[in-house]
Design brief:
Layout: H1 2-11, H2 13-17, H3 21-24, E1 38-41, E2 46-47, E3 50-51, E4 55-58, E5 62-66, E6 70-72, E7 77-80, E8 85-88, E9 100-102, E10 107-111, E11 118-122, E12 142-145, E13 174-176, E14 188-190, E15 203-211, E16 216-218, E17 221-222, E18 226-229, E19 236-243, E20 250-253, E21 259-265, E22 272-275, E23 281-288, E24 305-308, E25 323-330, E26 342-347, E27 352-355, E28 358-360, E29 364-368, H4 371-378, E30 381-384, E31 387-389, E32 406-410, E33 413-414, H5 417-425, E34 429-431, E35 442-443, E36 451-453, H6 500-505, H7 508-511, H8 526-535
Parallel strand pairs: 1-5, 4-7, 5-8, 6-9, 7-10, 8-11, 9-12, 10-15, 11-15, 12-18, 15-19, 18-20, 19-21, 20-22, 21-23, 22-24, 23-25, 24-26, 25-27, 25-28, 26-29, 27-30, 28-31, 29-32, 31-34
Antiparallel strand pairs: 2-3, 13-14, 16-17, 32-33, 35-36
């Protein structure tokens, strides 16, 4: 019954997506239809790539075109009103990608809302759901740079090899951000040792969607969807999205910035990537890889999370040590058995905590290398109370050694029986394909947005594999919930109404929300009654 419902809904999706959504962006906060907004080239607000005025406001009555790289410099403020749309041109071949960069000391105040998000996208995107998710690398992206601590040192070697790291600038503690050229101090992040400020404030990002970025400016040098370079915890970041980026979705280079309610989809590299002494907190992250694993231009995705302590292993500076709760990341379920995608890849002396999360369709659950193996064993790198859902082409025999789904990989090989014991002792679960969340997803053809099999990342209410004995900490950031994954089981997802990811994937739980459909499968039947009767008289937590 569920499968039939999914396909029936998918057949009508193209029409739903194209019904004038571009015209309604920002309507709830008084913004005019996008087609009637006044065109403004952002270059007209700049002098030599710098904002002409120290305070600049972008308003939703205009349709802005990013036709140059735009810097918000030290002492400058950029305000972006809710409902504002920025469309970026693709830079000519051989030139730097057009990118919005908030340099050290600059601040961005992009304070959107669920009904009036701020959207940054490619100039060719009509914003009606028809611009294919495989359109990536059409402009740069959004980069925030601050003065919080990192572990960049002049002795760093690239990937531990013989060549200098791409980050080094000549000053310990100051790095050159990935995706931008050297020789420009506005592209630097961090501060000299002893001058760092972990409470640094780069402004506010709230309900901001960044789409179709990651333009290549050199070999293995692309801009991430949203990049945080030594951004401090004084910065407020919540409800952000990076969609259809040619590199990582969200990447953190050092710093302490906290991020809540974030998503990434259809990107060609990792979905959360942290490095260089990142020590922030992340909660409620949703990632969705696209269905293609051809290795060609439509290829989508690498690891769910890439956890690095230092991009130049060997120096004695502190390593990355973030705390992450409640992520849900869905890999490419049609990937071949030889795919190298890992749910969590930890290496280069990484530390940190990943707790109460759900990963689906990856070849391996946890892949550990170098000192990260030691850190996992001594508890300085933790993966606890996470659920790993297998792929369709994998089996779960119950024998941890014979199981084709590698729960843990050590330095590229199979782990020992003791490692598997630790995996389960730490509260981690392995469940069968589509038994917790509906992670099967298909678009046909790949160069369209015609969804032929919808994904639903929301577990059914009462699902046992979504329950946890661990609560997120009670502090000034975390929401103390005791479920696994980015979404409350049985509830509507927080991505609804403002993200590209919700529109493209056609989340079943946002459509099949009729009263009585407790498990959100599109029908009311005995399964819903079982959920209700099984929970009746129990205590909520």
């Amino acid at each position: 019954m569920k499968r039939i419902f999914k396909l029936a809904m998918a057949a009508g999706f193209a029409g739903i997506a194209a019904q004038g959504s571009a015209q309604s962006i920002g309507a709830a906060c008084g913004c005019p239809p996008v087609s009637s907004r006044t065109p403004v080239n952002l270059s007209t607000l700049l002098t030599g790539g710098n904002l002409t005025n120290n305070t600049t406001t972008l308003t939703c009555n205009n349709l802005y075109t990013l036709d140059v790289t735009m810097y918000v410099n030290d002492g400058q403020d950029l305000f972006i009103q809710p409902g504002t749309v920025i469309k970026a041109n693709q830079a000519p071949v051989g030139t730097n990608a057009y990118t919005l960069i908030v340099s050290r000391g600059g601040q961005i105040w992009a304070n959107g809302s669920q009904s009036c998000p701020i959207i940054m996208t490619a100039s060719a995107d009509p914003l009606d759901g028809s611009y294919a998710v495989t359109n990536r690398g059409k402009w740069g992206g959004l980069i925030l740079l601050g003065r919080a601590r990192n572990n960049v040192r002049n002795t760093d070697l690239r990937d531990g090899g013989p060549n200098p790291s791409n980050s080094i600038t000549g000053t310990d503690g100051v790095g050159l951000i990935e995706g931008l050229p050297a020789g420009e101090s506005r592209n630097f992040y961090g501060a000299p040792i002893g001058q760092e400020n972990d409470d640094d404030n780069s402004g506010v990002l709230r309900y901001v969607s960044v789409r179709h970025g990651g333009q290549i400016i050199g070999t293995a040098n692309e801009v991430n969807g949203i990049t945080f370079g030594s951004v401090g915890r004084g910065t407020k970041v919540e409800f952000i999205e990076a969609s259809s980026n040619l590199d990582d979705g969200l990447e953190f280079f050092g710093g302490t910035v906290d991020v809540k309610y974030s998503s990434a989809a259809f990107c060609d590299d990792d979905y959360v990537d942290y490095d260089q002494d990142y020590r922030g907190r992340i909660q409620f992250f949703y990632g969705l890889q696209g269905p293609d694993n051809s290795g060609g231009t439509n290829n989508q995705g690498d690891n769910g999370m890439e956890c690095d302590g230092d991009d130049g292993p060997g120096n004695t500076a502190p390593k990355s040590n973030p705390t992450i709760y409640n992520a849900t990341i869905i890999g490419r379920w049609t990937a071949s058995a030889g795919s190298g995608d890992e749910a969590i890849e930890s290496r280069r002396e990484a530390q940190g905590k990943i707790i109460n999360s759900v990963f689906a369709n990856f070849r391996s659950g946890i892949s550990l290398a170098d000192v990260a193996v030691t850190n996992w064993n001594n508890g300085s790198f933790e993966v606890r109370n996470c659920t790993f859902q297998t792929r369709a082409d994998q089996t779960n025999t119950g024998d941890p050694v014979a199981d084709t789904y590698k729960r843990v990989r050590i330095n590229g090989g199979n782990a020992s029986a003791a490692d598997y014991t630790k995996f389960t002792t730490d509260g981690n679960l392995t469940v069968g394909f589509n038994t917790l969340i509906d992670a099967s997803f298909a678009i046909s053809p790949l160069t369209s947005n015609t969804v032929t099999d919808r994904v639903n990342p929301v577990p059914a209410a009462g699902a046992s594999a979504a329950q946890s004995t661990i609560s997120a900490p009670i502090d000034d950031f975390f929401t103390s919930v005791r479920y696994r994954g980015a979404f409350e089981p049985g509830a509507e997802p927080w991505t609804k109404g403002w993200t590209a990811i919700a529109g493209i994937r056609g989340d079943v739980s946002t459509v099949a929300g009729c009263v009585g459909d407790l498990n959100k499968d599109g029908v009311i039947n005995s399964a819903d009654f079982t959920l209700f009767s099984g929970a009746f008289g129990t205590t909520c937590f």
